[in-house]
Amino acid sequence: MKTKIVFSEKCLGYGQWHIEGPERVGKATEILKTRGYEFLEPKPASDEDILQAHDDEYVWAVKKSMIEDTDTPAYDNIYEFARLSAGGAILAAEIGGFSIMRPPGHHAGRAGAALGAYTRGFCYLNNIAIAVKHLNKPTLILDIDGHHGNGTQEIFMGDENVTYVSLHRHPNYPGTGAVSEGNCLNFPLPPDCGNEAHLKALDKALSIVEVNGFEVVAVSAGFDTHAGDLASLGLTEKGYREIGKRIAGLGKPTFFVLEGGYNGENVGKDIDTLLKGMELIV
Fold first, then answer.
1. Spatial CA neighbour of 217 closest among 146, 123, 281, 124
2. Whole-angstrom distance, CA of residue 93 vs CA of residue 152
3. What is the pLDDT of residue 95?
4. Which of 129, 110, 113, 130 lies closest to 121, judged by CA?
5. What are the start-end ranges of the H helices in the chain?
6. Mean pLDDT of all residues in the chain?
7. DSSP secondary structure letters along 260-273
8. Fewer CB atoms inside 10 A, N or C side of the chain?
9. Closest Cα to residue 124, out of 162, 174, 86?
């Protein structure tokens, strides 16, 4: 069965000037619509779901736009955009879909900036953390964004129900993820390392994880690893196809939440290629 895409055009309504702007998702959506995917409209996440991952004082600050962060500005009505994106992740989790909503989420910790980072890296609410908390099932979170998901690691550190695995470029923002800690397994990679090195690291990561202990695989799907993007690891469409095959090979219900990726055309093509890689196994 073809993976369903979770998307609302409402998420294009802010941040016109920013690198994390609407074009990256708008263009990706145009491409995916030509490839025959079914699109579903999400509902905003509830405060109850959001407060499973974030402190109430931080949520209040986002609601009131009382946040000061040059990378993650206090746009008008940003809480409404953020909770719709979190709702997209929840819907993707419930149906095994792919949410391509924005803003992204994996740098947002319980109280905002996480693990000593100086900004939230374009993230307001941690979408994948909110979705995983909503499901409340033993979950493997696989983060393939080019930046370490410091917020996700902070939220789930020590959680016996979740293992977090991240493959990311290092050194790079946010400066975390150099070593593994407890249930958070980190695989730092050098810039532009290429498909072969990335897939070798992914195979190593998945060989360490006890897959049978999980009921769900949640993928923080960042495509800023594409060659030439913001956190390039030199990946090409061939690499994303192989990543998809490996994820499908785990044999678990899987959902995806978009993180980075700043060339909209590449993001659309890479999502399609990754999902087609999944279909080669299933």
1. 281
2. 16
3. 98
4. 113
5. 22-34, 47-50, 56-63, 78-95, 127-135, 150-156, 195-208, 237-249, 264-281
6. 96
7. ----HHHHHHHHHH
8. N
9. 86
**Catalytic residue at 107?**
yes
**Number of domains the chain contains:** 1
Catalytic-role residue among 54, 106, 107, 134: 107
Mean pLDDT of 94-118: 93
pLDDT value for 241: 98
Q: Please say whether the beta carbons of 151 and 106 come within 8 A.
A: yes
* Residue whose entry in the numeric block shows the structure tokens 């994948």: 128
CATH code where residue 198 lies: 3.40.800.20
Structure tokens at 106: 């994996």
Instruction: Give this prediction's pTM.
Output: 0.98
pLDDT digits (tens, 9 = 90+) for 215-226: 999 999 999 999
Helix 264-281, helix 237-249: angle, nearest 10 = 40
Domain carrying residue 33: 5-281
